[in-house]
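Repro case for the chain-ordering regression, as requested:
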Amino acid sequence: MISRRSERTMLALFLVPAVLIVVGFTVLPALWAIYISFTNRALTGERSIVYEFVGIANYVKLLSNPLFLHSISLTLLYTLWTNVGQFVLGLATALCLNRAKLLGKTFLLAAVVLPMVIPAVIQSLIWSSMLAMGEYGTLNLILGLIGISPVMWLREAPMISVTLVNFWNNSGFAMILFLAGLENIPREVIEAAHIDGASAWHTLTRIRLPLIKYVIMLWLLLNTLGCFGVFDLVYTLTRGGPGDRTQLVGIFIYDQSFKFYELGLGSAASVILLCISLIIGLIYARMLRVTL
Amino acid sequence: MRACCALRSSEDFMDQIFHARQQRTVAPLSALRKLPLVGVYIFMVLLCLFCLAPFIWPILSAFSVKPENVSGLYLYMPSAWTFQGFDDAIFGRGQALILLQNSLLTTGGGVGFAVIFSALGGYTLSRSVFRLKKALMYAFLLIQIIPVTATILPFFIIMRELHLIDSLWGVTIGLTAGQIPFLLWVMKGFFDEVPKELEESASLDGATRFQTLWYVIVPLALPGLGAASVLAFNSAWSAFFMPLILLSSPDKFVLPLGLFRSIIGYTNIDYRMMNAMSIIYVLPSFLFFLLARRYLIKGMMAGAMAGN
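-- result from build under test --
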């Protein structure tokens, strides 16, 4: 329908600013990170101006750096627990809510979405009170009711604390996605299974779960991406501490680059994170089978 | 959450999905139907408490007078109610007004630019056919879901080369770049819904392409455009990492950064003031939640169905 040449040019021009900005401030940085990761550039001082090509030295240094390996394993653990926990909680909630008549369902859905719109800094502030130590810390107060003695959450169990806050903030996503998946299963399918005498467990594992497999995969990929790139929540809650006990990859990159000024090392870590994210992202994009 | 919202192309589309689904909702048959309804309700109440109970402390703390011998971090029985916390935050050492101004400038500017550029770009993506279009759309999808953490470091270096460190412009540009991929997808979806015949008749009447876009298409896509802007605003409003590395002078801090610096900066934290400031900061997010709650839930649900 677009016939005139000038019109085509104009349409193309419409796209230019958006593409330029994204290329300039997102794509170019990513490519530049790859370049810097092969140099010994520093953030300040002499090596920030005069730096040289060091090949894969940064990657070798990184992969033999116990702190980095520690941060990788912490990130993997965080991802694992977050995914497993939110899957179980999300599925349990979705199964509970998947009924035609349930009082307060809308309210509950609203309640689980509310934490999702709260900015990370505020999440941390709110939870610094929940996780406050001593017997009057709110969580300790609640646990005291069932006879558990006070825990110094942020000091003794920092990873559990971070995971818990992520639970609070992010579980709603799994719940709503799974619920949407379950409600989309035609009721005839479930009825047929019941008539054939399938037990509740069998309907769940053989029919419901396979039917929402696709939704679960999408959620899993997005959640994993979020876990790998997590920074705001962990940094504002623990700043990687105490010591290095919550030094996830995001914090590691930040510390190496902006605390120790080792750009090369920081970039190498960024590039590794970028590669992992790209792989997960590509799988996600393929799975969506979006119509363009 | 955002990635999924990007998938649904318009509200109508979501409504269709939502209603189609509602009619088919599985009635009393559930895998957990043997579990008594009471159990389900107990579970729901507990879940609700888990989600909402953490909000009690900041609200109590911001509006009340703390008893002498209690730490501000604990839940306490307030002895009296007061707005002193907000007074301290706005006119006292909280300097909430400066922070609020910086936040509004950067977020408003960033989202404003992003909306304009994405509306233009989205229109092109919707109306013209060219090679690499598909690749471009995929690239934007990828860029959108890749975590900021992976690109923040070189972004910082580029901003330093451009002398945009410690400048509100730097943050604005960063936010613009961050919101464009998501908005482009959404905008393209909105424009896809606008019938092409409308444009053809406008062009027969002698309107230029830009006039058609401005006077015919944009008004039609306006509700969707507004919804997308609000979503982008909320996401940009909570941006923390980018301002953290770019800004260093306190008079340029945005709200989340100012809040964070006060939390770690003071040895004796005035939690009442902090919570008052938090409430000021969270207010837009909360309004967004009230306005868009159903839309968010539906958006996520529709996102779960897309491509199925």
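Ordering looks correct now. DSSP finds 14 helices and two strands in chain B.
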